[in-house]
Structures are given as C-alpha cells and as structure tokens.
Amino acid sequence: MGFIEDISAAAEIIRNTHAVTLISHIDADGITSEAIAAQAVARLGIPVTPVFVRQLEPLTMRHVPDDDTLKVFTDLGAGQQNLMEEAGMKADDVLILDHHINQPAPNGTIYPQVNAQFYGPEYAKCSAAGVAYMLARKLDPDNADLAELAVVGNVGDMMARETCGLTGIARWIAEDGAQTGRVRIAKGINCYGLSTRPLHLCLANSDDPILPGLSGDPKAAADLLMRLGIYQKSSDQRVWESLEAEEAKILASVIAEQMIANGESTERLFAELYFFPHETELSPLRNASEYATMLNACGRWAKPKIGEAVCFGDRGTQYREAEHMLRHHRTIIRELCEHILSTGVADAGHLQWIHTRDTYPDTIVGIGAGMALSKLDPSKPIMVLCYVSDEPDLVKISMRTYEKVLRRGVDLQAALVAAAAEFDGAGGGHNIAAGAYIPKGCEDDFIRRVNELIAGQFATGAPHR
Ligand SMILES: [Mn+2]
User: Fold this and answer.
1) Are the C-beta atoms of 93 and 70 separated by less than 8 Å?
2) Could you tell me which CATH number the domain at 344-460 has?
3) For the DHH-CID domain, which residue ranges apply (predicted)?
4) How far is the CA of 155 from the centre of ligand 1 (A)?
5) Distance from the CA of 362 to the center of ligand 1, in angstroms?
6) Ligand 1 mean position to 350 CA, how many Å?
7) Residues whose Cβ atom is located within 5 A of ion ligand 1
8) Is the CB of residue 309 less than 8 Å from the CB of residue 35?
9) How, if at all, do strands 346-347 and 270-275 pair?
10) Using CA atoms, how far apart are residues 29 and 127, in angstroms rounded to an integer?
11) Closest Cα to residue 301, out of 277, 325, 323?
C-alpha cells in the first residue's frame, strides 16, 4: 500500500484503541518519535505508557507488558517481528512506526506498519520521528506544533548529513514547522554548535568538512574572526547564530576562498540548518543538531525519560537534569578522545585502530572515535574496539571516516557487514560511520580482514556518486 493509505490505517488503529504502550529506542530519533506519538495519542484522551529500550531483543521484550493495550513500536520493531510473534502478539495488538529494514514475522503474522523504507526515494531519508509526525498530523492538523521534534529526530539520525540538508518528506516536515513559525530554515556553514559554541571553537572543531588552517587550531580561528571584525578580542564568545547576515556571508566566503586555494571542494561547507526561534538564545535547544545531542546524552546515560520530558516542554527541573547529562556526556567523550590520542592508535595499513576494552561505555566509543580522528591521520578510517557492558562475549566495533575518503571508494558499512558475517557477527550503519558486533577473541583476525576489505575498496576506487 501507499504511504497515505498506511498512515490513514495507522490513524484508525490509534483512534479505535483505549490505551497505548509506546515502545521506543533511546537515541534522539527514538526519544523524539516517542514524544511525538505520545503527545498525539494523549491529546485524543487516550492514556499512554512509555517503555524505552536500548535494543529490542529477547531480553528486553520482557519490558513490554503482556496486557490489552495497543503496542506501538517507534524507531524499532520492523526487524523484530519474530519476537512479537514469539511473545504471542496478534496483528491487532501492534502498530509499527519505523524506518529500519523490514523482516517479516516467520509464521506469517502481518503486523500493521508504516515504514519509511516502503514508499520510494521521497520517503527513504525520513526517520521514525518523521513517520510519527506524519501520523500525528493525520490524527489532528493541530499537531503541527510537533514538527520541530520530527526535525530533531531526522537530523539526529543523520538524515541531513550526506546531502547537507533534509530532503523529501523530512524536508516537507521542516517546512511544515516553518509555516507555524516554530522552525526557522536557514543556510549557513556546515559546523556543529552554531547556537552555543564560541564561533572560533565551532570552526576549530569542524572535521567534515576540514577547514584549512582553522580545523584543529582555535587560535587561528579567533585571529581570523578578529581580522574580519566579528570578534573584538580573541577571548570573545560570540556564536554563529548571533552573526548579522552580512557577517555570516563574509565569514563563509573567506573560508570558501581558503578551501579553494587549498584545492578542496566547498561542496560540504554549506548546509541547510534548522533553528527553533522560540527556545532561549544560547541554549542547545535552539537548533536541531544540538537538541539531538542533548537527547542522545540522556539516552546513552540511561535517562531517556529526562529527554522525553524536555521534548514535552519541560524547561525546569528535568531540563536542568538534561543539561547535566549533556555536560557529563561531553566530559566523558573528551576523556575518551584524550585516551585514544595519548595511548596512540595502531596502523594496520589501510585503517588505524585501538581497543579500549572496558575503559569507556560502548555507547559513546563511536562518537569518541569520530572526534579523535580529526587529530589522527584523516586519510585512514579509524576503528575502535571495546567490550559491551551487559554482553560479556561480544566486542563492539565502531568505525569512522571522512567524506573525502568515501570519494576514494571507501564504504565502512559494506566492509563491516561483510567482515562481521564471516566472523558470525553483525554489522550495519552508513558508509561514513558504521559499527559491528563480533565474538570476543577474534579481534586480531577481524582487524586484518577489515583492513583487507578496505584496501580492496581503495584499490577499486570510487564509483560514480
Ligand atoms: Mn531512527
């Protein structure tokens, strides 16, 4: 069926139920899709109970209550219909809102599902929060005030990353939010921290794209800003969002000139950005990517309900707790990054790697890997291996690289999916950032195999992209 039919059917299922249990994932997309669906359902006067899980697997299925509520799965479920069937759930008891690969239930139960992967390219780059939003909008056009949460979920799930902006239905949702004034769509530099970080740090921290002479060098970035009259002194703290249009334009064109002079493409210098003008200035809730980080921080440190409260509009006690989570998150990631740099990585030839064992939680090693890479050899992908807290037999693999390396043919997802399968593990992710789980003990062979696969990708070179 088409998207409209599936969304209409989902809306009917919600309207005809007396109580909902919402089962969702703990990352930014999971928390926002839950918050959208929960508010849309609650506004109909139907009681909702949230259940957040790190992953839907046999062990976490027991958190899903065995009662007569409708089980709505957001940002998960498409790939776990076998577990629903095993738990004895009937098609009438379930609604799946997802964007992950669909794996039908083995005994043929057809669970109602709206999955962004079903409807062609216009929908393909839409996260679960986008799907939940379309359902909310179908239930009541007044739910358009939830558009910002869908934008946060989409951006948090990297739907804007490859194309430097949202596309298709996800872009339509941002525009829908712009109509009510809750979302401001802007063009600007493709850096992180535009609402909260002093601009020189924002530029110095940029690693995709690499800004020649600025990335990794806060002092040079502050000097440039003083030269342009954007900073009065090197200790200024202005953020990008506070720049006048003319200042932002001059800054972008100077950086673009430097990139061109260095033979770099400026293709990734500009991005479409999503701001929320009703939020307090200088707060991480002012733009989609920083908002998403705050929710990820809550989820990764096992407090998804704090993130949910922020999505519901709490700006008091729970919000302060979320700020605390965010600070904690940043501190641990910075420590991990320093640990990687001070310990040093091993060079396998076509990738560099480090095993952090149980020193840091597996939920953040990928982020730390990405940050450390900007201070390592950027031409080789980084692999970080670590143990998984509640899975003593597994090793988690996180890999990161840069757009520039992708253009030479590298695809981390392809490499990790293929290698993990050979070792009875499982891999997934994106070409630029991917992960895998493998059995403990085969790490050395695994590194060798991934290195071989990446060597092959470099040798074959880039396909037409
Ligand atoms: Mn998602």
Assistant:
1) yes
2) 3.10.310.40
3) 192-268
4) 10
5) 18
6) 30
7) 29, 75, 127-128, 157
8) no
9) unpaired
10) 7
11) 325
CA of residue 439 to ligand 1 center, whole Å: 25
Report helix, strand and coil shares of the chain as percent, to nearest 5. Answer: 45, 15, 35
Q: Give me 313's structure tokens.
A: 């509009």
Q: How confident is the prediction along the chain (465 residues), in pLDDT tens digits per residue?
A: 799 999 999 999 999 999 999 999 999 999 999 999 999 999 999 999 999 998 888 878 889 999 999 999 999 999 999 999 999 999 999 999 999 989 999 999 999 999 999 999 999 999 999 999 999 999 999 999 999 999 999 999 989 988 999 999 999 999 999 999 999 999 999 999 999 999 999 998 887 787 888 987 899 999 999 999 999 998 999 999 999 999 999 999 999 999 999 888 898 899 999 999 999 999 999 999 999 999 999 998 889 999 999 999 999 999 999 999 999 999 999 999 999 999 999 999 999 999 999 999 887 888 888 888 878 998 999 999 999 877 889 999 999 998 889 989 999 999 999 999 999 998 887 788 889 999 999 999 999 999 999 999 999 986 544
Distance 248 CA to ligand 1 centre (A): 32
Picking from 247, 279, 250, 239, the residue whose alpha carbon sits closest to that of residue 148 is 279
Say how far apart CA 298 and CA 148 lie, in whole Å. 18
This prediction has a pTM of: 0.86
How many angstroms separate the alpha carbon of residue 445 from the centre of ligand 1?
A: 31
